[in-house]
Design a protein that fits this description.
61% of the residues lie in helices and 18% in strands. It is α+β, with helices and mostly antiparallel strands. A hairpin with a 2-residue loop joins strand 3 and strand 4.
């Protein structure tokens, strides 16, 4: 005689519960993926510039209390995290860069880095109510981004600072600055190429060293 034994209902409930749980997990994963894709990048060109401005104002407020070396130490990570100094040097020198040995290139980058940080440390050394204002971010050719801003002095006069940025492996970095429309890259290109071509590498490095010393006296 065949005896029919009904399967325990608890097993049926367990299977249904597993199916429901599996479905919830799949739905959750599908909902999560678009969110992850649409998250804002950690650093955008505008954020890079705003962070730089914040550090500059901090150095200005520190002023004489920090001293030149204190401002230099404070601004070093800010400049390194906002500027593509290697790319700037290569762009300034153009073909002359390729004529330098690997050792000469590294020496040049090191001095240019020191000069860049020293220049900021010498310029932004006191605070009297100055402020930076972010204006806008614009797309430029070759996937560059232009961030426009304005610096207001204590007397009310303003200076326009426009930053051109490109994206490298580390993120968005400044490759040129225009102060009231005047390109810092263009000015350095004329001066640096002329000195390097006419006087040679040693005199060129000596010129950078003299500029570094002058920033400490400003």
């Amino acid at each position: 005689m065949h005896i029919y034994v009904e399967k325990p209902k608890i097993m049926k409930i367990s299977l249904e519960a597993r199916s429901a749980l599996h479905l919830l997990i799949v739905i959750a994963m599908l909902l999560y993926i678009p969110v992850a894709w649409t998250q804002e990048p950690e650093t955008t060109p505008a954020k890079i510039i705003k962070s730089l401005h914040g550090s500059l104002l901090e150095a200005m407020r520190g002023g004489e209390k920090l001293g030149f070396q204190g401002r230099y130490k404070l601004l070093t990570p800010a400049i390194e995290n906002s500027h593509d100094l290697g790319f700037i040097v290569k762009t300034i020198l153009g073909r002359q860069w390729t004529k330098l040995s690997g050792e000469q290139q590294q020496i040049l980058i090191n001095h240019f880095r020191e000069l860049s940080i020293s220049t900021y440390s010498g310029w932004f050394k006191e605070y009297n109510g100055e402020k930076f204002k972010y204006i806008e971010q614009k797309k430029m050719p070759r996937d560059y981004i232009l961030v426009r801003s304005q610096f207001t002095r204590s007397n009310g006069d303003t200076v326009s600072f426009d930053y051109l940025l490109r994206q490298n492996k580390k993120g968005w970095r400044i490759i040129n600055i225009l102060a009231d429309g005047v390109s810092d890259l263009a000015l350095k290109r004329v001066e640096y190429r002329s000195i390097l071509k006419q006087k040679g590498f040693k005199d060129f490095i000596d010129m950078l060293k003299k500029k570094i010393e002058l920033t400490k006296k400003n």
